[in-house]
Amino acid sequence: MKTELRLLSLALLVLATISLTTISVAQTTTVTLTADLSSKLPTGTVFTAKDSFGKIYEGYLITHRARRMLRSGSMVLVFTDPVVPVMKDPEGVIHGGNKMRLLKLGGSLAAAKLADDAVDGALGATKARYFAVGVSAMLIALQKGQEAKLHAGDTIEVVPRRAP
After folding, report:
1. Buried b (16+ CB within 10 A) or exposed e, 2-13
2. Are 56 and 132 spatial neighbours (Cβ–Cβ below 8 Å)?
3. Which residues make Cβ contacts (< 8 Å) with residue 68, sequence separation at least 6?
4. Which of 42, 35, 67 is closest to 145 using CA atoms?
5. 125-142 vs 99-123: helix axis angle to the nearest 10?
6. Domain segments of the chain: what residues?
């Protein structure tokens, strides 16, 4: 008898978990952006997105441009409709990529090597290396990071906003 009650309670628990999971998945809606968005745009820029049924969702951007020292740009999509985007980042921030950051870092190190080789005969090996370190530091300091971008046609998952 106890075994049957345990099996019954386990079955009810599994069914309740499955039903709660399907309810939360069913509330997710996929929207498609209607215009290109970038962290270069000013904060407060209005954007629109459309779901598969043709409903228009409006919102605005909060942006931070890419800065010096390889800092990438970022943006947050804030919907005025009662939905919030589902993102990898728990705060919903979209960051610029790291590919260009690595390429720029490698390029500055290659330029430093070329500078080292160019002045090696004139200054000597030791001073040429100090010169190369200075060139590399200057190039890294002057380079900007990658801007965050979303293109028209990109899709975003949104869920209804919880009541406060």
Report:
1. eeeeeeeeeeee
2. no
3. 141, 142, 143, 144
4. 67
5. 150
6. 28-96+147-160, 100-142
Q: Is 25 helix (H, G, I), strand (E, B) or coil?
A: helix
Phi, psi for 53 (deg, rounded to 5): -90, -5
CA distance 83 to 55: 13
Side-chain half-sphere of 21: how many Cα atoms within 13 Å?
6
Q: Tell me the pLDDT of the chain averaged across its residues.
A: 78
> Model pTM?
0.61
Q: What is the pLDDT of residues 61-109, one digit of tens each?
A: 999 888 766 677 889 989 898 888 888 877 778 877 777 777 777 777 7
**Separation of alpha carbons 162 and 91, rounded Å:** 15
